[in-house]
Each structure stands twice: as structure tokens, then as C-alpha cells.
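Severity: low
Component: inverse-folding endpoint
Summary: output formatting inconsistent between runs
Steps to reproduce: submit the following C-alpha cells with default settings.
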């Protein structure tokens, strides 16, 4: 089974598919480009923030280190009286504010420990708590090198998030392996990591534990880094402050959040800062762009579908009209109206179709006329045969009438009225016989053949036949025949038909007005004679002069003319190696001039001449 798929549908589908492909490709390319661009941007951002956080923390620690050095210098200065030292140290505690306690170690042994009583009081801590903590969490003195700063989370109670910062002290008069350490409030560190809601920042201490985090609970509980997956943690551990201080990673945290993470490490204190940006937040604009692009693509598709439908309608509607018109033409209706006006190939096609329909219309009309003419010709032929039969039937009684009239004439006195009447009967009967003879000659087509013919005689016979017809229409039929006209090799019947056609046409052209038809003959030279049939009718309009010899060309109303007369005439004259021409005078009538070769003409075919001699013999 074959499906009928309208062109409109095919066009629309093609357009939609093409647009969908193009829009899809553009959307995909844009989204990919934007995504990779965004990824680069997010990677840069996380690493920059991580670096910024770690550098800020580092700067704070350097500040702490300077102060610790000041503390140790005051403590270790042998020239300072004890009372001054106390004043200076408490002044320093007041200035810094974040220091909770400062401890000096020599060879791992605690030498001096100073405490900020206010801070301990605020956190409801006792010195003994701090001492106990120090004893439980000893500082790894061996790890504290010349320039390095040891920083770890050392929160004892929730109320006092704090870290221990320790540095080695060198200088004249300062014993080897002297280390100064301080318990410092984490306020600055916590401040650094809590500056943005868009990302999570955190700092990992020298011992690999949380030093600062947005989530204060993680800090006060001094937790391990329990949110970064182990394989990522391995990479973070491989950061080297001197060779590759920054890395960017993508992973799912152990809490199940997809993140882009940046890590940076600082020199000397070896702190590691991390920054997490959730992928949902990082790629929010990419997703929004994708959603917007999808909407644009959808709208474009809808627009394309509508446009496609509209165009397809415009293209296929005229084709449908043409198809309907074709069907109508197929049924023989050539008067179809094709309402298609477009300046493209379809418009051209419609134009050609109109032209074709017009052509078919004319051809159909011509065919109908030809058919009518053929019917008429057939009728005429039938009439001719019938006429011949009737003429035969009438001729015998006429011969009888003539015979009896002759017999009666012999027995009747010439002076009587009866004799005169019988004479009239004899004359009219002869006339009837003559007409009948001519009619028989005209209709006996099967017996037609060419022979040496006296054209003047043919003209006289023709006049006998048509004279009456012309006379009753007030047309005088005159003749002017040349004496001793050479014989022509012709079929008298056909020449008679030619002459009759001229005479009847002339009478019809005069259309009831009195006029004249004159038939004249003359010898042009040894080889040619001329027959002229001139009338005093209206002549032939110049614009149709070229067409009058065409078959079926007629200006007469249907039923009166077949348009065959002159074309048959032309054929007959040509058949006799003759020529036909006209001298047309639009007001004074027209002359048909026929030239025919004489018996001695070289124009005649040899066989015909031989025939002719046979005929003459
Ligand atoms: P028909 O007589 O049937 O029309 P013809 O072939 O005999 O066909 O004539 C063709 C046309 O030539 C005529 O219809 C007429 O218009 C024109 N015609 C022929 N003879 C004459 C004439 N003597 N005078 C004017 N027009 C003529």
C-alpha cells in the first residue's frame, strides 16, 4: 500500500529537521564553549581564593611570630629588672588581645609561662587546664626549624577556639634550642575563612588537622579533615609550598556534595588553605544558559514549523489548483480558470498550462468544425450519389417525353396553338435534359479521368448548371471566351467543380445585391491558357486573403460554408499542373485567375501526353 504524503508535510518536516539540527549544533557548541570557559574560570577562582586565604593567614602568623620574638626578647633580657619585665609583658598582652598564654622552652623544658588572666576568665579556664593541655599535647620541638612556624589547633573549650603557634629563637646570649610558643585565639583565622557565603574556605594546620573552618564545630572539636575523600586528600598532601603550592580538584565530598576545590600552601608555616565551591553554584549560569538556549531553540522550532507550514501552503496550494485544473482539462473542459499568480517556476507552469488549455480549446473548436465540415461533405457526397440516381430516373421519362413530343409535332399543323405549345414542351424538355446531363457529368465521380478537354465547352456546361441559381439571386453570369482555345489535358468534371465553386462563392459574396460574374478565357502562350472568374462583389478583406485556400477556413455562418471549396479548388488546379492566383479589389470585387498547361506544354508529365494522344486518336 502506497501512502500519499503531501509535499507540504515533506517540506515542513525537512525545514524543521534542518533547523533542529542547526539549532541543536549551535546550542551544543555554545554550551560546551561556555562550560569549558566557565570551568577554567572556576578553577582559576578557587585557586586564587585558596592562595589569598593562605597568604592572609600566613601574614597574620608572621605578625604573631614578630610579637613572640618580642615577648622572648623581653623575657630573656638579663638587663631588664623583673618588675619592668612584668609591666612590659602585661602591656604586650593588652596590645595584642588574641594571645592567651606565652611559654618559653629550652631544650624541650618549659622555662617560663605567662597567661592572660582576662582571656582565661572569659573562657572559664584555669591555668591548670592550659598546663594539662600542654602536657597532653606536647610540641614536636624537633620539627620547628630555623625559620618555620609551627601552627596547630589547640582548642581546649568551645568558648575559646585557639591555636598554638611556636617559633625557634636565635640570637646572642640566647641558649640553643630555645622555642617560644603561644596559645592564640583563632578569631583572625576564623574571620579569614568566613568572608564569603559563595564558597567554603578552611585552613589545615601543620599537623594536618582543621585549624579554621566556616563550621565552628569542626574547629572546636579539633577534628580531622573528614569531608575530603582519601584520594583527593592524597593529592592535597602532595602539595609542596616551594615547588607546586596550588592545585585544583573536582570531587564529591564525603558529605555528598559535588565541588570544585582549590588548595594552596604557604611557606614557613606550611598551612594549607582549601576552598570549596559547590558545582551547582559554580555552573549555575551554565545551566541557566542551557535552559535559556533550549527555550530559544524550542521557540525557533515552533517559528520554523509555522514558517514551514506557511511556505509549504504557498508552494503547494497552486500545485493543487493546477492538479485540479488538469483533471478538468482531462474531462474535456478547456475553459478552466487557473487562479495562480506567482513570480516563480510555478507561475511559469501555470502560464504554460493556461497556454496549453487555450491551445487545446482552439484545437477542440477546430476539430469540431472539421468534424462538422466532414459531416457536411459526407452529406454532399451522399446527395451527389442520390442526385445521380434521381437524374438517371428522370432522364429516361424525359427522353420519352421528348420522343412523343417529336412524334406529335410531326402530326400537328404548324400554325396551331397546340404546335406552339408542343414546341415549348420540346424546348423546356431539352433544357431539362441538358441540366440532367450536366448533373450526371458532375456526379459521375467514379468515371472521372483526364482527357483532351475544351475548356470553353466545360465553361458552357457549368454556366448551364449554375446560371439559374445566379439569376434568381440577381447575379448576371456572362462569358467572354477566346476562339480556338488550345485543348488542355484535364478532367472536365473537376474543372467544372472549380468553376462552380468560383461562381457560387461570388454569388454568396454578393449576398443578394445585384451584380455580375464574368468568366473569360484566353491563350497566354503556346503552353498556357488562362481562365478568369471575376465578380463585382465586396472583394476579400486583405487580412484573410492568405487564409482562404486553407481547408475549413470560412467566413460564412455555420451551415452555409464548409471552408472546403477553395482548398479543393486549389488541389484540383495543382493536380492539373496549373496555378491559381487572385486579383483582389476590396470595393470592386475579386478575380480568380487559373492558368492551365495546354496539351503541347512541357509541364505535363510524359505519360499524360501519351495518354492524351491516345485519347485524341
Ligand atoms: P466557403 O465557401 O465554404 O466559405 P471557400 O473555401 O469556398 O469556403 O471560401 C473560403 C472563404 O473565402 C469564404 O468564406 C469567403 O470569405 C472567401 N471568398 C471566396 N470567394 C470569394 C469571393 N468571390 N468574394 C469574396 N470572398 C470570397
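Observed output (run 2 of 3):
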Amino acid at each position: 500500500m502506497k501512502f500519499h504524503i503531501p509535499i507540504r508535510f515533506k517540506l515542513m518536516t525537512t525545514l524543521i529537521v534542518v533547523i533542529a539540527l542547526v539549532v541543536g549544533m549551535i546550542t551544543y557548541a555554545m554550551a560546551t564553549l561556555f562550560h569549558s570557559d566557565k570551568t577554567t574560570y572556576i578553577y582559576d577562582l578557587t585557586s586564587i581564593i585558596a592562595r589569598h586565604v593562605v597568604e592572609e593567614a600566613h601574614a597574620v602568623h608572621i605578625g604573631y611570630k614578630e610579637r613572640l620574638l618580642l615577648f622572648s626578647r623581653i623575657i630573656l633580657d638579663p638587663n631588664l629588672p623583673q618588675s619592668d619585665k612584668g609591666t612590659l609583658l602585661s602591656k604586650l598582652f593588652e596590645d595584642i588581645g588574641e594571645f592567651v598564654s606565652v611559654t618559653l622552652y629550652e631544650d624541650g623544658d618549659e622555662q617560663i609561662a605567662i597567661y592572660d588572666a582576662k582571656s582565661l576568665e572569659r573562657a572559664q579556664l584555669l591555668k591548670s587546664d592550659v598546663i594539662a593541655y600542654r602536657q597532653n599535647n606536647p610540641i614536636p620541638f624537633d620539627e620547628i626549624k630555623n625559620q618555620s612556624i609551627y601552627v596547630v589547633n589547640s582548642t581546649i573549650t568551645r568558648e575559646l577556639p585557639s591555636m598554638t603557634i611556636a617559633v625557634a629563637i636565635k640570637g646572642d646570649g640566647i641558649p640553643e634550642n630555645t622555642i617560644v610558643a603561644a596559645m592564640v585565639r583563632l578569631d583572625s583565622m576564623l574571620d579569614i575563612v568566613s568572608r564569603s557565603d559563595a564558597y567554603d574556605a578552611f585552613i589545615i594546620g601543620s599537623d594536618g588537622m582543621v585549624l579554621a573552618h566556616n563550621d565552628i564545630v569542626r574547629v572546636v572539636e579539633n577534628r580531622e579533615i573528614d569531608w575530603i575523600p582519601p584520594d583527593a586528600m592524597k593529592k592535597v598532601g602532595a602539595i609542596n609550598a616551594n615547588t607546586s603550592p596550588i592545585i585544583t580538584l573536582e570531587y564529591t565530598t564525603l558529605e555528598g556534595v559535588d565541588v570544585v576545590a582549590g588548595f594552596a600552601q604557604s611557606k614557613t608555616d606550611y598551612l594549607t588553605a582549601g576552598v570549596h565551591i559547590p558545582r551547582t553554584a559554580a555552573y549555575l549560569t551554565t545551566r541557566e544558559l542551557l535552559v535559556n538556549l533550549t527555550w530559544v531553540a524550542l521557540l525557533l522550532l515552533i517559528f520554523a514549523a509555522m514558517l514551514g507550514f506557511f511556505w509549504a501552503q504557498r508552494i503547494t496550494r497552486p500545485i493543487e489548483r493546477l492538479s485540479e485544473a488538469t483533471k478538468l482539462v482531462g474531462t474535456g473542459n478547456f475553459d478552466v480558470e487557473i487562479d495562480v499568480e506567482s513570480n516563480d517556476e510555478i507561475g511559469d507552469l501555470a502560464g504554460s498550462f493556461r497556454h496549453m488549455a487555450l491551445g487545446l480549446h482552439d484545437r477542440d473548436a477546430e476539430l469540431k468544425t472539421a468534424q462538422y465540415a466532414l459531416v457536411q461533405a459526407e452529406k454532399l457526397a451522399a446527395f451527389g450519389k442520390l442526385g445521380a440516381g434521381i437524374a438517371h430516373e428522370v432522364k429516361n421519362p424525359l427522353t420519352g417525353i421528348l420522343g412523343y413530343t417529336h412524334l406529335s409535332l410531326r402530326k400537328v399543323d404548324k400554325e396551331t396553338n397546340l404546335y406552339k405549345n408542343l414546341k415549348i414542351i420540346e424546348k423546356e424538355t431539352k433544357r431539362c435534359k441538358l441540366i440532367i446531363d450536366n448533373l450526371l457529368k458532375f456526379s459521375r465521380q467514379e468515371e472521372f479521368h483526364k482527357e483532351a478537354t475544351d475548356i470553353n465547352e466545360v465553361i458552357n456546361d457549368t454556366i448551364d448548371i449554375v446560371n439559374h441559381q445566379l439569376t434568381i439571386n440577381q447575379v448576371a453570369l456572362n462569358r467572354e471566351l477566346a476562339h480556338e482555345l488550345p485543348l488542355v489535358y484535364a478532367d472536365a468534371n473537376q474543372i467544372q467543380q472549380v468553376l462552380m465553386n468560383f461562381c457560387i462563392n461570388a454569388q454568396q459574396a454578393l449576398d443578394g445585391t445585384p451584380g455580375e460574374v464574368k468568366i473569360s478565357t484566353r491563350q497566354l502562350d503556346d503552353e498556357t491558357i488562362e481562365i478568369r472568374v471575376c465578380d463585382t462583389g465586396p472583394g476579400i478583406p486583405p487580412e484573410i486573403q492568405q487564409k482562404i485556400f486553407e481547408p475549413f477556413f470560412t467566413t460564412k455562418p455555420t451551415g452555409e460554408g464548409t471552408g472546403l471549396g477553395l482548398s479543393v479548388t486549389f488541389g484540383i488546379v495543382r493536380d492539373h499542373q496549373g496555378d491559381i492566383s487572385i486579383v483582389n479589389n476590396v470595393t470592386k470585387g475579386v478575380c480568380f485567375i487559373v492558368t492551365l498547361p495546354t496539351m503541347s506544354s512541357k509541364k505535363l508529365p510524359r505519360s499524360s501526353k501519351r495518354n492524351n494522344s491516345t485519347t485524341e486518336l
